[in-house]
Amino acid sequence: MRYPNQSPKLAPKTPPESTSELAIDRERYELLQQWESWLEIPMLVLSFAWLGLLIIELVWGLNSLLETIGITIWSIFILDFCLKFLLAPHKLFYLNHNWLIAFSLIIPALRTLKIVPILQSLQSVHAVRGLQLLGIMTRTNRGMRLLGASMERRGIGYVFALTVIVALAGAAGIYTFERKLPNGAVGIADYGTALWWTAMLMTTIGSDYFPKTEEGRVLCFLLAVYAIALCGYATAILATFFVGQDAENDEAELAGTKSIQALQVEIAALRNEILALAKRDLDH
């Protein structure tokens, strides 16, 4: 940058420290991208396994072997997040875009804090259910983000896989919250019924059962919002299909790809003819 009344030799230059810092930040960012590329598929598999362990824990419970596997996967996620945080050039920016992942890694540790007197309230029924709801949301979000990052184009395959994940996790949550209701009320008896109820909700058909717990109603609302978005996506896919069918038909009112290409050829031929006539006039 050149300042007024100064020669180029006297103009201030970029300090060497700033240039070196930019180079270091670029190298760290490249290392971070390379690390994420290397572990993309393994982390996706581990995320699905971790979510599956959560569903098993909510529905049937975990034995000692499954608990050990879950702790191992959790430890791997913590190490991966810490390493990425150390490699990230801008720490606050990285935390701002990955705070939900960090929160999902903190939730499993809250169970070990029940021995602390100030956190005795975590043992209440609503607190435990609240932590379970947060666990379902955060673990599902982690799987969704890794699935979206693994698929370059979020097409039908991505939406189908995402819907299966949401349905399985949502059914586990509803079964956990609605199987034991106060005052002997009738809830959801088994996981199969919960999965059927979730499928009916996500297809907007609905059922005659309405959640009676606060956590179940929150989860029901989130599933309904996803179902609305899914129906919008399906409508867009069908509209695109029928529009594409009309575009391939030469007799349809909608101009298709073939018609547009033919029009482009005619325009190019007309332009060449005009240029030829103009050149002929100049020669004469």
Overview of the molecule:
This protein is mainly alpha-helical. The protein has 3 domains: 17-149; 151-248, Helix Hairpins (Orthogonal Bundle); 251-284. The protein has helices at residues 16-38, 40-59, 64-87, 91-97, 99-106, 125-150, 156-178, 191-202, 214-248, 257-283. Helix 5 crosses helix 6, helix 6 packs antiparallel against helix 7 and helix 7 (156-178) packs antiparallel against helix 9. The longest helix is centred in the C-terminal third of the chain and has 35 residues, at 214-248. The two termini are 55 Å apart. The relative contact order is 0.06.
Which SSEs are present, and which pair or pack?
Elements: H1 16-38, H2 40-59, H3 64-87, H4 91-97, H5 99-106, H6 125-150, H7 156-178, H8 191-202, H9 214-248, H10 257-283
The percent range for strand residues is under 5%
Give a short account of the largest sheet: none
Q: How many H/I helical runs?
A: 10
The ordered string of helix (H) and strand (E) elements is HHHHHHHHHH
Share of helical residues: over 70%
Count of individual domains: 3
Pick out its properties.
284 residues, 10 helices, 72% helix, disordered N terminus
Give a concise summary.
Helix content is 72%, strand content 0%.
